[in-house]
Amino acid sequence: MAHSKARAADGKVTYPPGVKEISSNISKEEMVRRLKMVVKTFMDMDQDSEEEKELYLNLALHLASDFFLKHPDKDVRLLVACCLADIFRIYAPEAPYTSPDKLKDIFMFITRQLKGLEDTKSAQFNRYFYLLENIAWVKSYNICFELEDSNEIFTQLYRTLFQVINNGHNQKVHMHMVDLMSSIVCEGDSVSQELLDTVLVNLVPAHKNLNKQAYDLAKALLKRTAQAIEPYITNFFNLVLMLGKTSVSDLSEHVFDLILELYNIDSHLLLSVLPQLEFKLKSNDNDERLQVVKLLAKMFGAKDSELAAQNKPLWQCYLGRFNDIHVPIRLECVKFASHCLMNHPDLAKDLTEYLKVRSHDPEEAIRHDVIVSIVTAAKKDLALVNDALLNFVRERTLDKRWRVRKEAMMGLAQTYKKYCLQGEGGKETSNQIAWIKNKLLHIYYQNSIDDRLLVERIFAQYMVPHNLETTERMKCLYYLYATLDTNAVKALNEMWKCQNMLRHHVKDLLDLRAHTLSHNNILKTLVAFPGNLPDPGKAQDFVKKLAQVLEDDERIRDQLEALVSPACSCKQAEVCVRDITKKLGSPKQPSNPFLEMVKFLLERIAPVHIDTESISALVKQVNKSIDGTADDDDEGVPTEQAIRAGLELLKILSFTHPVSFHSAETFESLLGCLKMDDEKVAEAALQIFKNTGRKMEESFPHIKSVLLPVLQTKAKRGPPRQAKYAIHCIHAMFTHRDTHFAQIFEPLHKGLDPEDLEQLITPLTTLGHLAQLAPEQFAAPLKSLVANFIVKDLLMNDRVGTGKTTKLWVSDDEVSPETLAKIQGIKLMVRWLLGVKNNLSKSGNSTLRMLTAILHSDGDLTEQGKMGKPDMSRLRLAAASALLKLAQEPCYHEIITLEQYQLCALVINDECYQVRQGFAQKLHKGLCRLRLPLEYLAVFALCAKDPVKERRAHARQCLVKNINIRREYLKQHAAVNKLFSLLPEYVVPYAIHLLVHDPDYVKVQDIEQLKDIKESLWFILEIIMSKNENNSHAFIRKMVENIKQTKDAQAPTDAKTNEKLYTVCDVAMNIIISKSTTYSLESPKDPVLPTRFFTKPDKVRLSLPVSAPVSPCLCPKAANVLGAVNKPLSTAGKPIQSKASRMETASNDDSTSNPSSPQRSKTRYTHTHTHTHTSNPSSPQRSKTRYTHTHTHTHTSNHSSPQRSQGVCLSRSPRVSV
């Protein structure tokens, strides 16, 4: 070595053989040629060539001179760089260059030459690759560890390599670069922050997207050097995260992006960093917490991530952020849930409870995203979500916000279609979510038109897709209908009825336009349009514009007429919808509210499911089930259930699409159903014939000739319900119905035998319907039949005694034939009166007296004691239902006395649960149809005392629905003349009057009884006062004040009755004052009181202050009594917290009755309290079997009235009928 140094000191440069001196005096081309020979020489040398190393030492030093390092020609620089790389290889481990500055210059020079790697198509690329390969293999840059400026050299090298790497490089280039850089990290003493930044910057998303190859290079480098570089990464994050020293690096603002990338590269790089994130999750800075939550969401949710299992404290801390106070953080957590559920099903259990809480989050967006997360996972694989998560989606279908409801409904619909219709996941999966179809259809019960429209769309697209082939579509509908629950079936039926009604509205609009009626008449005819379209406020304008479009555009008019035509096929409907939409659409106006409304309308009226071909396919499907060739078992539906459901489905479709049934094949199949043993199937077939057979005589005479004898046989000897439908079929289908009716009436009339009770039921049913449909044809025989046979022979005789039983109700098949015959007798009388529709013969009065007598006697009209309690309950219900039927006809409503009305009302308090239930349903039905007068709505006030929670809740639902129906009707019809009979607020006077005459209210100032009155009043007032539209609270107050200026028209001279009236008014006033803040405002209208219930205002009383309790005999304790009563009200439908919570039969103590009032019934539950009282001479008498709340008391009789019948106090009876 000493010798070599001496030679170096000589300064004489020895060149390889054939190479002349290389200096600035030669041309560039010659210099390049000579350098290539030098490169070849060094390339061939190895480290063992000591002589050559000594020989060319000065040449090595010469090549490192500034002349070469700063030469302007790149080819010269490249060749020199290759020589220097080989020199480092040959002279390793000691380089011939000892000056630190010179070494720095040399390595910076080599680094600059590496930029040539960028152009992979360059002629010199192989030399650049040789240079890279050489320095990487030799690890030449490791010499720089001892230099002060090593960091600068390494940083520049790293930057250069990350800049030049591109997709043109092969795997070898990539490998040599990693080798070169990794040796610096692994063998060096430290990694500077600047050098670390040079690597990490390539992981930042912005840089990553610009140069994917640089990202891959950095990723490979970090994986190779994970153990060595981890402390420096940890130190960087410590400084930034824990100490907040963001100035240490320009990458501080990307710290969370870097953590994610490093975790994805190698989780070991962050072993000491992850615990710091737990600290950051609890930061007081909302934005900082949000960033950490976003980061951890990606880390936990990544497909192969095991972070949750490896770091459970961090996972639990992250879950806690689901309950963060900051909305964006909760939102981010919820969004993360879907990825977590899909990639880590094992974490679903941990997420469930937190998602449950967030599904009730006050923020709409969070509730919405909970649904999105769960549904997204469910659509990928149902096994990823448990039943609890699906139930969260189910609950949100009733969310208060439309956006959330819509997302939940659509999510369930898409899930149902994928796993139930398309069969993905198999039978077990399909059964797991079978509830979805019912739930979606139940939503049709909601009041929002948006909900109803979405259910219709879901049904057409997801439950029974309209684009299926006809046979497949009908099969899908058939088995869907067969597996729906009762409420879902009702909802689906209602949906078809609503769509059918809207089709008729559109048809009316077209007809009105054809008759060139005024625009006002068109709008008057189509008042129901707004309620059938979204945004009712704008629907009126839409109707006007639609009418104008139909007037101006004949093509649209023709298409719409074809669409609503009963003969429109499904394919034709699709064409019409497409043409109308295309015609009204405009590319220049992408957002067209009118077009959107038209689409909604077309969507509802287009018959995309049902046409003649569809009905034919559906009938064939039913026939397959009858023949036993259908796939009923595969579909999981018992054959008998499928047949019944299929006939029920055809029945409802026969109502909405009657013309679609007009085919010989369909009618012949229905004829076959009439001959089946299953009564339900035959009943459904008869109803279908009734709905669809109007033109059968003309179009299908061969069917008529076969059908008529069958109908006549059914009417004479079939089951009662089939006999009923057979009569209606004949009435609807045949022109010579009088002849056919006579052929049925005569033999049945003559063959009536009161001794053969079982054979009496069908004839009475048939005769009853004949009496209703053809009262004039059989006027004389019917009158005689009712007076002599029905009343005298049937109702007034008890032929067969029934066994004693404590039951109040039995199933239908246990009811005695005599009772069934009597019920049909009552119905026959009522149907006859409804057919006659006049009371000229006073038959209505006698019938009402008969019905009242049945109620008075608790159903045992003869009072011989032969009838059992279940039969008596049946007859009470039949009599009360008959009264309600007659009350729906104006001519009979007028002759129903107040005592009869009150006695009928008390049936809703009957001791038998089924009687109360059946009566309430009949009452509700009549009120919903706006057939029963408004005073019957007040009857529900008596339900406040029902001991069964379900009955109170049902009564409240009935009240709400009826009140809403009336308010909606008044909005659509400016029926000022009908205001008194429709305005819900007018039920208050009726309720007050009914409660005044409640047999339980016997002592005027009894606090317990007044509490019951208060509960009953609040039961109705709570619903009526829930809205204060048009200052209705003041109107109600004014009504009550006006009542206090009148007297009870039922007993105007009875001081006791009128005192009770004023006291009940005081209680009502207290409720109004305590529950309203606007009661004292001016009433918008002066109320009109019903003169049948109240006298005209008393002139003397008009001068008295109406705000104070007024009564004929002012009691000094009145204020104290009302104060005791005026305590917090229980919510309607909740149990009454008093002694009145016990149900007992009535205590029939000695009391008086009014000869003009109906006798006290024995079947009402009662509230009896400890007091002494006198009876109300004008009130209906208490039923012995009204449910009771009993306390001991005594009665003082009114000796001016006849004595009431004595009775014993019955023991408290269990609620066996509940």
UniProtKB/TrEMBL annotation:
Residues 1202-1218 have a biased composition (Polar residues). The keyword Cell division applies. Residues 1161-1172, 1183-1196 have a biased composition (Basic residues). Residues 1145-1158 have a biased composition (Low complexity). InterPro entries: ARM-like, ARM-type_fold, Pds5. Keywords: Cell cycle, Cell division, Mitosis, Nucleus, Repeat. Its main location: nucleus. The keyword Cell division applies. It is found in: Nucleus. PANTHER family: ANDROGEN INDUCED INHIBITOR OF PROLIFERATION AS3 / PDS5-RELATED, SISTER CHROMATID COHESION PROTEIN PDS5 HOMOLOG B. This is PDS5 cohesin associated factor B.
